[in-house]
Amino acid sequence: MEDVRKIYRCNPKRRVVLLLFWSIFSIVAFYAILNIVSNRLDLSQVSACIQIGYWIVFTICVTVAGMSVYAVKQKCLKVSPTEITYVYGVLSKQRITVPVSKILGCGRRKTITQSMFNTSDLFICTIGDIGEFYLNDIEQGQEAYTTILALIGK
User: Fold this and answer.
1) How far apart (Å, rounded) are the C-alpha atoms in residues 48 and 76?
2) What percent of the chain shows pLDDT beyond 70?
3) Are 78 and 85 in contact, with CB atoms under 8 Å apart?
4) Dist CA 24 CA 62 (whole Å)
5) Mean pLDDT across 56-78
């Protein structure tokens, strides 16, 4: 068997689109609710404070979600004939290496939005301490799935 490694990376595009969608939805909903409440109550004095508070919370949420998207981009699965290595982490890289002989099975799941971005979820069941690890939005998920199944002989 060849010793060429295949690397499958996680793709953050779907998460970016969802982040943009929910951000726009949040802004529209906030101003619609603020307008409805302002018409019923006299909020002219506190309206600016409410808007500032909203934008502070919104900025914090978008920043945290953006960091999550960046963290997803750093994940990858390296497949070789003898082992599979899952690398993840932003500030400190974590590495899980599993010999092919310790892999029990592999599964794949694909949602409608993942179909639009050609990604899927992949999970690998192992013997021992690791148990199972799960990769979200992996590019070429079908190829990774069939490659792992071929390695374990299923």
Assistant:
1) 45
2) 96
3) yes
4) 11
5) 86
Contact 9, 139 (CB under 8 A): yes
pLDDT digits (tens, 9 = 90+) for 21-31: 999 999 999 98
Q: Which pLDDT does position 37 carry in this prediction?
A: 83
Which tokens go with 57? 């919370």
Neighbours of 11 (CB within 10 A): 21
Task: Please report, for residues 35, 49, 54, the alpha-carbon distance to residue 41 in angstroms, rounded to integers and kept in the order given.
Answer: 10, 15, 19
Q: Which residue has the tokens 């590019």?
A: 139
79, 149 in Cβ contact below 8 A? no
**Burial zone of 75 (CB within 10 Å; 0-12 exposed, 13-18 middle, 19+ buried):** buried
Map tokens 């909903």 to a residue. 29
